[in-house]
Amino acid sequence: MIIPEFLKSELALITLTFLIYWGARALYVRTRLTILNPMIVTIGALIAILELTGVSFEEYYRGGRMIEFWLKPAIVALALPLYNEMEHIRRQFMPIFLSELAGSITGIVSVVLIASWLGASPEVVASLAPKSVSTPIAIEISKQLGGIPALSSAIVILVGMLGAVVGLKTMERVHIRSHVSRSLSMGTAAHVIGTNRISEFGDRFGAYATLGVIINGILTAFLAGPIVNLLIG
Amino acid sequence: MAKQFGILFGCLLAGELIALIPWLHIPGSIWGMLILTFLLDRKIVKPATITPVCKFLVANMGFFFIPPGVALMLYFDLIAAEWLPITVATVASTLLVLLVTGRMHQYFHARYKRHIKPRTR
Questions:
Q1: Whole-angstrom Cα distance, residue A180 to residue B109?
Q2: What is chain A's mean pLDDT, rounded?
Q3: Deepest of A153, B8, B27, B116, by most Cβ within 10 A of its Cβ?
Q4: Residue A23's closest CA among A55, A62, A49?
Q5: What is the pLDDT of residue B21?
Q6: What is the pLDDT of residue A2?
Q7: Quick one: CA torsion of B93, B94, B100, B103, rounded to 10 degrees?
């Protein structure tokens, strides 16, 4: 198929991204199916369109990087929810910090060890290391570690969906009964997608899960580099 | 608007400066988040000042990582070659994180309660 230059312009590609995301969100709101995550649907649809029309990723990225630019300010903006949770953090700093630390280290060490035992290449291992944290943070960490940011973001979304689908049942099975513990755990393991799931039980749980997301993001940013170097250096 | 973005981008810029330190492998955006949290906590920046922009950016975070996600199309060969370690490591590790974080929090939360109980009685 021959695509006029006009449709390869940055403006056209950005417009396309907006329109597809709009449609994907509408689909998700209507169905409420975790598997129809709007980000996955949009990414899948865009890849399909680019492959079909023969527009290269480089061409898409001329417009795309203007969207990606906003990732970093958005991470900084997480300061607001973090500040809003300050009260909780201060009141129970030790239980939250210690369990987050344990969860963060478990996540990085286990994924790095298992992946390298099964023969994954160093760049794939680096991409997997930040798999439990929110996508924008994972992309940044993956870049720092020499991983493939795109692979990290795909894995992160899949991890979130896995957590949202099997998380509660898993925790029931291993006798995690406290709702606060469950919420924190969901946020730590399955970031924003897990948080969405647990928020269905009430705002308070969403707040604890958000806390898990942000603290694990910060801890993973600090720990992923040293741990990856130590284990597979 | 200008004030909000000025504060937000100022924090990001300061964070990126810190991230220039070569042996510190932490993204500048994470430093920026920590700096802004500190400013809010010290009441140097009022939460109300930056709330609209922050809420907008956080609520639409999903949209911003679509382009890096589309880059996945460049790595289909790699994924086809290494799908097994990727899948096994990811699933096992996610379940472990759920287990460890939840159990640890439950344990420490109970211990912590026991510690403060005598005082509250």
A1: 9
A2: 89
A3: A153
A4: A49
A5: 83
A6: 59
A7: -150
Alpha-carbon span A41 to A21, nearest angstrom: 8
Instruction: State ipTM.
Output: 0.86
The structure tokens listed for A35 are: 């598997």
Place of tokens 């970093």: A72
Mark B27-44 as b/e (b = at least 16 C-beta within 10 Å): bbbbbbbbbbbebbeeee
How far apart, in whole angstroms, are the C-alpha atoms of residue A44 and residue A39?
8
For the segment B73-118, what is each residue's pLDDT rounded down to a tens digit? 888 888 899 999 999 999 999 999 999 999 999 998 888 765 554 4
Question: Would you call B105 an interface residue with chain A, using a CB distance cutoff of 8 Å?
Answer: yes
Among B101, B108, B114, most A C-beta atoms within 10 A, so best to mutate, is B101
Percent of residues, chain A, with pLDDT higher than 70: 98
pLDDT of res. B10: 97
pLDDT at A110 over 70: yes
- Name the DSSP class of A32: -
DSSP state of A133: S
Task: Taking residues A91-114, report their average pLDDT.
Answer: 94
Render B51-76 in DSSP notation, one character per residue.
Answer: HHHHHHHHHTHHHHTHHHHHGGGG-H
- Count how many residues are written for chain A: 233
Asked if A140 and A73 count as a contact pair (C-beta separation under 8 A), the reply is: no
Closest of A173, A15, A72, A59 to residue B98, by C-alpha: A173
Indicate if the pLDDT at residue A154 is higher than 90. Answer: no
A–B: how many Cβ contacts below 8 A?
Answer: 316
Q: Is A177 helix (H, G, I), strand (E, B) or coil?
A: coil
